[in-house]
């Protein structure tokens, strides 16, 4: 069985949960109702209370291919770029939450179903003011490599 990029997403979001990042965001909300989500895939609803985080993943690519350990096996090194966008009212709050996300994912080792996590590399982070909404967004971007065994039929 081979891994798919959704397996990587599942591993990353499991790591988010294990690092208790939801609690960090809820602590800064006026309403800390646990039924209101903190992290969203691709976009949040317009009425989502601040602060919150949006997770985005770019299409994955095959970085390299090689022979496996047995004759009918091939290995692939896959690369996935993903980012977290922290949304907050003020710049300092966005930056502080982004720092916590970055610390949580620094040297992270993921358990990826049907694959082996090779490494995760921090790419960049930056803050942007959204003048239309009067909010701040802080982006933290990573690149992850994972090794996948592919059995030939």
Q: Taking all residues together, what is the mean pLDDT? A: 85
What global shape is seen?
Answer: elongated
Q: Which class best fits the helix and strand makeup? A: alpha+beta
Q: Taking Cα atoms only, what radius of gyration do you get, to the nearest Å? A: 18 Å
Number of domains: 1
For the record, the CATH architecture stands as: 2-Layer Sandwich
Short description:
By secondary structure, this protein is of the alpha+beta class.
Write the layout of secondary structure elements.
Elements: H1 5-18, H2 21-26, E1 39-41, E2 52-57, E3 61-67, E4 73-88, H3 91-105, E5 116-130, E6 135-151
Parallel strand pairs: 1-2
Antiparallel strand pairs: 2-4, 3-4, 4-6, 5-6
How would you explain this protein's 3D organization?
- The protein is of the alpha+beta class and 153 residues long.
- The chain has one domain (5-151): Phage tail protein-like (STM4215-like, 2-Layer Sandwich), CATH 3.30.2000.10.
- 23% of the residues lie in helices and 42% in strands.
- It contains three helices and six strands; from the N terminus they run H-H-E-E-E-E-H-E-E.
- It has helices at 5-18, 21-26, 91-105, and strands spanning 39-41, 52-57, 61-67, 73-88, 116-130, 135-151.
- Strands 1, 2, 3, 4, 5 and 6 form a six-stranded mixed sheet that branches.
- The mean pLDDT is 85.
């Amino acid at each position: 069985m081979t891994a798919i990029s959704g397996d990587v997403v599942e591993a990353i979001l499991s790591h988010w949960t294990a690092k208790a990042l939801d609690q960090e965001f809820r602590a800064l909300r006026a309403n800390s109702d646990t039924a209101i989500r903190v992290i969203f895939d691709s976009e949040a609803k317009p009425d989502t209370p601040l602060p919150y985080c949006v997770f985005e993943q770019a299409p994955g690519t095959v970085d390299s291919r090689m022979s496996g350990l047995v004759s009918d096996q091939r290995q692939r090194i896959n690369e996935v770029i993903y980012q977290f966008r922290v949304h907050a009212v003020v710049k300092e709050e966005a930056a502080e939450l982004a720092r916590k996300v970055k610390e949580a994912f620094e040297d992270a080792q993921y358990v990826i179903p049907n694959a082996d996590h090779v490494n995760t590399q921090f790419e960049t982070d930056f803050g942007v003011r959204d003048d239309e909404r009067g909010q701040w967004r802080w982006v933290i971007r990573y690149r992850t490599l994972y090794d996948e065994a592919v059995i030939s039929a």
